[in-house]
């Protein structure tokens, strides 16, 4: 039986895998991994690895009104049977978690991408979770972003996802006299099972024409924030701040990946 | 096609990432392979104050704090390492010697490795928890070093290496790293212990006992090394006889449990017969009986065991004999048990006689299903208080320091004696000592354990009090600093803010002009409750109960709250009070003292003159109590017709209402139960009769005045919080006892007194108890009530979601719902209820965000309930044991004072027979509230020239014959060879007898132990 975060973290300030509170796991990514698709990427954050491919924008399937104002984003998430600890054989139709991730991704990218440029067309994103070790949603967002960039679909900025958690007793309000908070960045699976967790996605918006072009400061927008766990409201602000910081770190890494790739 | 293979070489970070792979099997038998990443780093400090390198790399946590360095720059030295050393124990050292590491005399500056901590957790969770709490305390300077994450000390498992070897190597690697690291940064040696291979790697390794031998006081410390493992190592499998059958394998147990052929339950031992145990299992109504050592198979009272029912021909009736371990196994020798059978002849004989009884006709004698223990799910071993059996120490005890094996007799009679190896046997005789059980192997008749510490000499106040507290697991250590830090900084100078604008007044009602008073036992300092009543213009009355607002001072989840939740309850001993909350709160700031303003939580009702409740209201308030009465003072004031002031009038009104409420409660079927309690007034002067302090509790009308209103407040609050929190409300229930619990008592009553007990409902029981009256024996009714109380289950706290609403009933009070609200100073449950009620009435708190404070999640509440139920029970036990001890001491003091010719004549009193056994009876003496076992030798037969000496009397037992009738519950004791007329005495159940009570010192083997002896001097007037 290995140790767990709640007992040892307060003693050593080291997490189960040896990270400090504000460290990301090792992030590695490649783009254009699958030449057959319009855009594709492979991304791993620690032991979570995701493969993503984008098709489109292609002509919409039906000529109805659905896509008249812009492209429709379709997301399909497939968690491999060998992704978790237990090998699981799935019946058709996907399970609750993967369809949840798909819905979140769809709505996030639907509003994030400049879809109005492609009326009556469809952008379909296929996400394959090859191995899942926590922060799957965040990793999927990052992988999608890379694949969409690879596909050349215009977007206002890179959309990066990251998770933040809170160790300690987070279901009760924080004690104003003991103002110690222990937020954690980029949770791995054991931590995810133990602690409340928030997934945050941010994007930097390149200021448009009406805005002041001289302003160097990029404006960060939180495009996505989702949390399933119970958490006392007093902690959310801290977690949000930590998560945004994590997203900024990831953005730099992703930018390096994009700049470093020399697509044929 | 592009390859998906990851290219690590391009990423400089990747070099430091490795992964840990391990395989585990789940409960359902699946095998899982777990892969975890490991990020190796170089910024894990060594935490030594000697080091000059690490402070610069030590990282900050999320709040920017850097953990202070722990290990001292002047570590202590030993004979072997005069220049000082740090210790790096391996897992075995901790497994064998955790008590040593907790010892305050040595073992400072210890480095605990992550590897070791993980291994320890796998091997023993309790030890792991003890180690964690050691690491958390500052004074012992234990440092948890995460060696697996440090680049230099990370060890990869070699292909053919076993996991144990790897871990050992990891420990050695750390030790040598520490050595080099500290040498580089400063000059000081460092040593460690781990065996053999260490030499090769140039690390000093010592076995635990070798290390300890180099310390001061080594003898005392050596005893504390766990007996079990070392013995197993040396003796190995070569040892001879196996006394006990083997336990079934885990998978066999699980299959059996699932199939319903085996049952799981908690092992209980009969207080009258140490060889008889019982296990309550959900599958049957009545507990299964477990007879004899063979069947109980190394289970100790409290263990969670798996049992198998024995074939019907082995079913027996429960024992009708008093069997005392000390008496039966008096002559066992602790060293030579290899040659003895597990069941000695004497024990076997004791059992045989029980089989004979199996053919009785009434229900008490009917053979009942018996079972044997086939597995232990969870040991519930704790530390036991006991004393060394002086008979088991060798004659050479006083001489040399040779290690020898002695028996320790635990204070708890249900626990078998424990074999302990010690070098200080001579010193320990006559002391209260604390021991722990390490193991009970198949080849050993008694469990083996080791000595932890001595509490002091037997019968000294300090030692006995500490023994009681340890035995009942009462937290008696002073409050740690972080708890005291939570107290208001003003200390005793704290007052209710004068200005109503102050945030302290938020949401509080000003009730300072109400005539409120408190009524408590004399000398009470922690005043929880106060009352008032006043007429309203419409002819009704306003009645208020005001409870100390403890939740204002104890905020959820701060160290003080956590400490209180662990303590659970204040424990009252005769001469000592172990507080749940620090003194400052309990006796001053929260206590509703008279003449000063205090925060309170008030429940206010409007009642009609007939005590019909029209409305109830809850509010936080500020009150000023006008007077603090004792029960007697209040009674006098009410009775004094000349007093007509408003306060007295309001008390008279309260009294009037309480009488109506009480009647209503009884009409609804509440039980009037009795407990055999006496009260000690310890402040009596030294010269008088010490026994004068022992008083039976008297009930004044004012006692029940307070009680009725507290009950009313509790019930009102219970409904309120349940309405607001249907899942998490903290309530208290008293389950309806199953009718079979009363079977024996009903039988006895109908047989001996021709009385009926109707147990169909609490009301019926109350009525039938009222009819159990013996005109010639006024105490008889109380006796029956005491016995009936013992047939019931105990009340318990629970959270509302845990039971269906129909199960909420409080049987004794005949209330559909109940909780504890009125004593937050001394009970944690009340404090939680206060928080829930505050949130239910929308109280916002000082800073306006107290909205949901204290309404914890269900899971957490369940844990809290389990703990406070356990603490509550233990607090009661400890209180009773303390009174019992005090009565014994008072008897002894009196004996010494009154003894004219050197022998103690004892006190003549009246007693009542509670239970009849084959070789003795149990007598209850109401004057002292004690139950005494009367053995054969303790019957004073007519015409006997009474010799009072204990040893003389013991001889008598052999000359006596008994005639025991289990169906009539009678026991005739007579001298051999005499006709019954002249030298015989007949005792029967419920009979009033004359007894002589004295405190005697056991002689011979149990020397130094004292017991209250009850002699039956004559059967009293039988009709």
From TrEMBL, chain A:
<dbReference type="GO" id="GO:0003723">
    <property type="term" value="F:RNA binding"/>
</dbReference>
<dbReference type="GO" id="GO:0034475">
    <property type="term" value="P:U4 snRNA 3'-end processing"/>
</dbReference>
<dbReference type="GO" id="GO:0016075">
    <property type="term" value="P:rRNA catabolic process"/>
</dbReference>
<dbReference type="GO" id="GO:0071028">
    <property type="term" value="P:nuclear mRNA surveillance"/>
</dbReference>
<dbReference type="GO" id="GO:0005730">
    <property type="term" value="C:nucleolus"/>
</dbReference>
<dbReference type="GO" id="GO:0000176">
    <property type="term" value="C:nuclear exosome (RNase complex)"/>
</dbReference>
<dbReference type="GO" id="GO:0000177">
    <property type="term" value="C:cytoplasmic exosome (RNase complex)"/>
</dbReference>
<dbReference type="InterPro" id="IPR001247">
    <property type="entry name" value="ExoRNase_PH_dom1"/>
</dbReference>
<dbReference type="InterPro" id="IPR050080">
    <property type="entry name" value="RNase_PH"/>
</dbReference>
<dbReference type="InterPro" id="IPR027408">
    <property type="entry name" value="PNPase/RNase_PH_dom_sf"/>
</dbReference>
<dbReference type="InterPro" id="IPR036345">
    <property type="entry name" value="ExoRNase_PH_dom2_sf"/>
</dbReference>
<comment type="similarity">
    <text>Belongs to the RNase PH family.</text>
</comment>
<protein>
    <submittedName>
        <fullName>3' exoribonuclease family domain 1-domain-containing protein</fullName>
    </submittedName>
</protein>
<feature type="domain" description="Exoribonuclease phosphorolytic">
    <location>
        <begin position="23"/>
        <end position="154"/>
    </location>
</feature>
<dbReference type="Pfam" id="PF01138">
    <property type="entry name" value="RNase_PH"/>
</dbReference>
<dbReference type="InterPro" id="IPR020568">
    <property type="entry name" value="Ribosomal_Su5_D2-typ_SF"/>
</dbReference>
<dbReference type="GO" id="GO:0071051">
    <property type="term" value="P:poly(A)-dependent snoRNA 3'-end processing"/>
</dbReference>
UniProtKB/TrEMBL annotation, chain B:
<dbReference type="GO" id="GO:0000176">
    <property type="term" value="C:nuclear exosome (RNase complex)"/>
</dbReference>
<keyword id="KW-0269">Exonuclease</keyword>
<dbReference type="InterPro" id="IPR022966">
    <property type="entry name" value="RNase_II/R_CS"/>
</dbReference>
<dbReference type="InterPro" id="IPR050180">
    <property type="entry name" value="RNR_Ribonuclease"/>
</dbReference>
<keyword id="KW-0539">Nucleus</keyword>
<dbReference type="InterPro" id="IPR041505">
    <property type="entry name" value="Dis3_CSD2"/>
</dbReference>
<dbReference type="Pfam" id="PF17215">
    <property type="entry name" value="Rrp44_S1"/>
</dbReference>
<keyword id="KW-0963">Cytoplasm</keyword>
<dbReference type="GO" id="GO:0005730">
    <property type="term" value="C:nucleolus"/>
</dbReference>
<dbReference type="Pfam" id="PF17216">
    <property type="entry name" value="Rrp44_CSD1"/>
</dbReference>
<dbReference type="Pfam" id="PF17849">
    <property type="entry name" value="OB_Dis3"/>
</dbReference>
<dbReference type="GO" id="GO:0003723">
    <property type="term" value="F:RNA binding"/>
</dbReference>
<dbReference type="GO" id="GO:0071031">
    <property type="term" value="P:nuclear mRNA surveillance of mRNA 3'-end processing"/>
</dbReference>
<feature type="domain" description="RNB">
    <location>
        <begin position="508"/>
        <end position="843"/>
    </location>
</feature>
<dbReference type="GO" id="GO:0004519">
    <property type="term" value="F:endonuclease activity"/>
</dbReference>
<comment type="similarity">
    <text>Belongs to the RNR ribonuclease family.</text>
</comment>
<keyword id="KW-0694">RNA-binding</keyword>
<keyword id="KW-0255">Endonuclease</keyword>
<dbReference type="InterPro" id="IPR033771">
    <property type="entry name" value="Rrp44_CSD1"/>
</dbReference>
<feature type="compositionally biased region" description="Basic and acidic residues">
    <location>
        <begin position="322"/>
        <end position="333"/>
    </location>
</feature>
<keyword id="KW-0540">Nuclease</keyword>
<keyword id="KW-0698">rRNA processing</keyword>
